[in-house]
Amino acid sequence: MYQKIKQTIFQLIEPSKGNLTSKIFDVIIISLIILNIILVIAETFDVSDTARAVMNGVEVVSVIVFTIEYLLRVWTADMLYPQYRAVKARLKYIFSFMALIDLIAILPFYLPLIIPIDLRVLRILRVIRLLRIFKINRYTHAFGLIAQVFRNKAAQLISSMFVVGLLIIIASVLMYNIESTVQPDAFSNALETMWWAVATLTTVGYGDVYPITAAGKILATIIAFLGIGMVAVPTGIITAGFTEIINKEKEDEKEDIHYCPHCGHKLDK
Amino acid sequence: MYQKIKQTIFQLIEPSKGNLTSKIFDVIIISLIILNIILVIAETFDVSDTARAVMNGVEVVSVIVFTIEYLLRVWTADMLYPQYRAVKARLKYIFSFMALIDLIAILPFYLPLIIPIDLRVLRILRVIRLLRIFKINRYTHAFGLIAQVFRNKAAQLISSMFVVGLLIIIASVLMYNIESTVQPDAFSNALETMWWAVATLTTVGYGDVYPITAAGKILATIIAFLGIGMVAVPTGIITAGFTEIINKEKEDEKEDIHYCPHCGHKLDK
Amino acid sequence: MYQKIKQTIFQLIEPSKGNLTSKIFDVIIISLIILNIILVIAETFDVSDTARAVMNGVEVVSVIVFTIEYLLRVWTADMLYPQYRAVKARLKYIFSFMALIDLIAILPFYLPLIIPIDLRVLRILRVIRLLRIFKINRYTHAFGLIAQVFRNKAAQLISSMFVVGLLIIIASVLMYNIESTVQPDAFSNALETMWWAVATLTTVGYGDVYPITAAGKILATIIAFLGIGMVAVPTGIITAGFTEIINKEKEDEKEDIHYCPHCGHKLDK
Amino acid sequence: MYQKIKQTIFQLIEPSKGNLTSKIFDVIIISLIILNIILVIAETFDVSDTARAVMNGVEVVSVIVFTIEYLLRVWTADMLYPQYRAVKARLKYIFSFMALIDLIAILPFYLPLIIPIDLRVLRILRVIRLLRIFKINRYTHAFGLIAQVFRNKAAQLISSMFVVGLLIIIASVLMYNIESTVQPDAFSNALETMWWAVATLTTVGYGDVYPITAAGKILATIIAFLGIGMVAVPTGIITAGFTEIINKEKEDEKEDIHYCPHCGHKLDK
Question: Which of C10, C88, C221, D141 could make a disulfide contact with C84, Cβ separation 3.0–4.6 Å?
Fold first, then answer.
């Protein structure tokens, strides 16, 4: 009986099972998330006291629903990872990326009851919960492919970001030494100058800080051109990642190789 | 006799038939479109009453020509889709992308006769009708290839845009909470702050709004770097799409596979 | 005797022959071009009358040398294209891209003698003559490859630029109608508004014009995101072009195919 | 005995040997480098005299450690390049990229003892020494791959940068002639105008200088669009480089080809 109920609940909340009640459950949760996002944005406007009372009501209801959902997911985690013991399966689930997001989405509501810190702005992270939309529609494969590319190429992307970090430090210290004497406000110290380096390297170029000396302009030119490279390298890495996966899929198709849809291991023909 | 006239008209307005009178017809229509675009732009200048009267005259003549052309296209739609019944063929044509554009291009002229709304600015959508230029010249294949890449990769591009959307929402709410106290005018609410998020993520960086606090600059730095990724991911997707099509064409060439030029289905050797 | 002199001169000015005197000749011409570019830039500064007199002297000497070189190249053009008759070879050479640049580089000096127009600024096009540097060093292949990619993909790149053109026209007219009432100076007419559309689509974002109304900001957001696509599409096209050429070279290597180094035609094994 | 000590020291300072003491040594050096970078940045702030005294102390200790390390590396260079004679091996090491960086990182401290020039800002180049982090972790391969792509495609990247250089010169001289009469301050000479050309071509667009005449805006439009190409071409080159290396690795795997991990030469099966 206990197992039966647990099984039913698991099928309800686990989107990949794909039955109708599960889909309706997902649509309700997603609607509630969207409503909450609208609320978080709406709260930044000046609204009447009545409206704010309604907002608070919706917030309380949402958090209760999200909390129950979270507890149910933790409870049924041993059915999600049947290969582990119950405790280990639950711990594994609690520390998974999506579960942590779920927790961060409700925790800001309970925290002020314990410690007097207002972290309610973190509620906006509920937006990330919308990624579960990809689990119930035809974009699943497309989104999985993009995530796969980033996982495959993580080491290369981090390496290129590391080099960019070094570049920003060098550019900031050099630029501070060049410009701080003529523009002591805009380039007040090397940390402040990093703001210029970031705006230039990413080619955003707000225009709030820019060099005015000849030496500063030459350095900015070099940094701006390296900024071009900064777009080119990750683009190259990511593109190669997409091409690689597509080629692999095509080869597998030719050689009639199939993978287990559950664990991803290669299957014997 | 009726069928004969219809056939002649269809051959005249359908560019893919490629006979001379059809080409002349296309050149006339395209010239009229270009003339109309120049007029729409010219109307934004201060012009004399005489000039405005001439413009109105050209506009009336254009709309009459475009209306007749539109009606003829609807009438001959059953020859474009011979596989459907006459009514279904016409409905299918009316709701096709290019036919809707054609309708939007003439409707703003007739609407004020019925309801008093001035939608004449929509006439500029006649510009889209210029895409038919690709039907009469040697760029047909190139344009078709670009359109093909976007169709093939639509799911991936939409997925990446969805993630960008989430990013903009998160960035805006966080940035509003960081900057609104020191810059209440520029960051007056979360929706206004989205304007900053868009300018930063797309690396446009107009410079009308930018953070001035340390926390705001750190958040802006993260967003600007994610903006690099925002260029890299669609570029990777689109590049992989181009490479894929080119490789497919090459393989088909090798294996001597041909496709029906009309419906795109594979042909037996 | 006449043929002998012509042969010697041709070997001297034609860089691909690769003998030492020819290389010295190239170095002299390139040095003179660089000297001229420095002069054109230097002239934009306030300089003393003496300096200006020296500059004019160098200019006169340069033009004389370039003119003689140009005439010699036209004279020996029949040795460059031995397959054509003398007159046709010379006409073909005169209307080649590099020869037209050579002509434009010297013509501004002679024109004022005939018609009183000051086109001396066109002298800066002598910069393009520096491309001949690629003919005398190890970057020949690399530069040829880049040029090849642009030639191969010209139709696709032009198609994408055409779509961008339509986009700019639509965006400008719509934005003019949205913003001109509140910012009549910045968005004074649809042509002026194009300046905003270009700055946004290319993500340059100078920040001299930007929308301030909600509708304007929404339109600008759409345009800025399409700007991302505007980088992605040509990048995809060009990348596919590079990959294609590299794969072709590799396959040719495998299949032991060689091309004539002079005309580029496939050679029998 | 002398050889024994030298061998021990070499194993200590050479990270690729991978024993524990060598790793501890690396961690100490890297920590010292990071401490120094923090110091260089901290020095740009207004700090108390006590703090500055502490900083100077750390600086002196660091330079002593770095100097000893540098001398030991030069001394043991003949074990790094066993194929060369001792003197040649040391000279080869001294003029390697990383050794020159090491020298530049300590030289600014000693130079003022000899000649009175303050080059202490060059200490920031110690940041580059952090690249050795890639030698002790799992990102070695990823970083090596990125470096490999740049080496393989150096000729093409330099060629495209050369064309960009010509473009900047032409754009600057033309723009100077167009805008200098109406904006003599912003476009005071062709060199100053290059600052505008760089900001536009790299799409940074600070907004401190921009054309206001119609002709200037048309030229800026052309340059901004060429700027798109400027991102596209290096991206295409670099992407092709990544794809090429990945394909090569895959083919080698298929054909069971192995390379010597020390010199990179192909090994017989």
Answer: C88
Partners of residue D207 in chain A, C-beta under 8 Å: 205, 207
Residue of C202, C233, C235 to mutate, testing the A interface (most A Cβ within 10 Å of its Cβ) = C235
Angle between helices D49-75 and D2-13 (to 10 degrees): 120
Q: How far is A137 from chain B (nearest CA, A)?
A: 11
Q: Give the residue extent of every domain in chain C.
A: 2-139, 154-254
Q: Which residues of chain C have pLDDT under 50?
A: 261-263, 269
Residue type, C64: I
Three-class DSSP category at C18: coil
Longest dimension (CA), chain C: 80
A258 is written with which tokens? 């199939």
**Which positions ≥6 away from D157 have C-beta within 8 Å?**
D150, D234, D237, D238
Q: Classify C266 as helix, strand or coil.
A: strand
Q: How far apart are CA B242 and CA A242, in angstroms?
A: 12
Asked if A239 lies within 8 A of B244 by C-beta distance, the reply is no
Q: Per-residue b/e over C133-153, b at no fewer than 16 CB within 10 Å?
A: bbbbeebbebbebbeebeebb
d(C-alpha C61, C-alpha C83), whole Å: 35
Quick one: CA dihedral A50, A56, A60, A62, positive or negative? positive
Mutate to test the interface with C, among D149, D159, D169 (most CBs of C within 10 A): D159
Q: Where do we find the tokens 């039966």?
A: A4
Q: Over the stretch B97-120, which tens digit does the pLDDT of each residue have?
A: 888 888 888 888 888 777 777 777
pLDDT tens-digit readout, B36-95: 888 888 888 888 889 888 888 888 898 899 999 999 989 988 888 888 888 899 999 999
Please state which CATH number belongs to domain C154-254.
1.10.287.70
Q: Please, are residues A267 and A258 in contact by the beta-carbon 8 Å criterion?
A: yes
| pTM across the whole model | 0.87
Q: How many Å lie between the alpha carbon of D245 and the closest alpha carbon of chain B?
A: 16
Query: What Cα–Cα distance (Å) separates residue D102 from each residue in B16, C252, D65, D67, D76?
Result: 68, 45, 12, 9, 15
